[in-house]
């Protein structure tokens, strides 16, 4: 907000009232967009955390394939959104999860190790959900 006020004050002092109005309007849109993006990341993170925790139990093989696809795309999406907000450490963690759960070039590991990775993914997405609360 302080940056927005500084920008509008600079525009006012320069006599560019049209630019000042544009900056105010754009600031409101950016704020609404950021809130919507924050809400979407939180929703995706909680869904993936629950799905990853459920994957520890005995399910048909199709559920594990579904979890792999969901964690891959959610990790890539949430990582990109967090990268834009300068939360680079969480973004790198999400990109690593997307790489491990990649359904196109699958990593073949024993079931016990996948259980640990599923719990790790659930914790990672839980941390994302917790850090994105507003």
Residue share in helix? over 70%
Q: Which spans have pLDDT < 50 for at least 5 consecutive residues? A: 1-8
Mean pLDDT: 83
How many domains, in number, for the residues? 1
Major sheet size, sense and barrel closure: none
For the termini, the CA-CA separation is 16 Å
What is the strand content? under 5%
Estimated radius of gyration: 20 Å
The SS-based structural class is mainly alpha
Overview of this structure, please?
With 134 residues, the chain is mainly alpha-helical. The protein has one domain. It is 81% helix and 0% strand. It has helices at residues 2-13, 17-54, 61-84, 88-100, 111-131. Helix 2 packs antiparallel against helix 5 (111-131), helix 3 runs antiparallel to helix 4 (88-100) and helix 4 (88-100) packs antiparallel against helix 5 (111-131). The longest helix has 38 residues, at 17-54. 22% of the residues are buried.
Short description:
The chain is mostly helical and 134 residues long. The protein is built from 5 helices and no strands.
Topology summary:
Blueprint: H1 2-13, H2 17-54, H3 61-84, H4 88-100, H5 111-131
Helix pairs in contact: 1-2, 2-3, 2-5, 3-4, 4-5
Which descriptors apply to this entry?
single chain; mainly alpha
């Amino acid at each position: 907000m302080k940056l927005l006020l500084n920008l509008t004050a600079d525009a006012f002092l320069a006599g560019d009232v049209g630019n000042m109005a544009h900056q105010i309007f754009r600031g409101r849109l950016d704020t609404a967009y950021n809130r919507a993006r924050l809400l979407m990341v939180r929703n995706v993170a909680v869904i993936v955390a629950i799905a990853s925790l459920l994957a520890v139990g005995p399910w048909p093989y199709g559920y594990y394939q579904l979890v792999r696809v969901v964690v891959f795309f959610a990790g890539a999406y949430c990582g990109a959104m967090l990268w834009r907000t300068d939360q680079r450490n969480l973004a790198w963690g999400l990109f690593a999860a997307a790489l491990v759960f990649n359904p196109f070039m699958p990593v073949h590991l024993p079931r016990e190790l996948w259980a640990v990775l599923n719990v790790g993914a659930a914790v990672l997405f839980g941390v994302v959900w917790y850090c994105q609360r507003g």
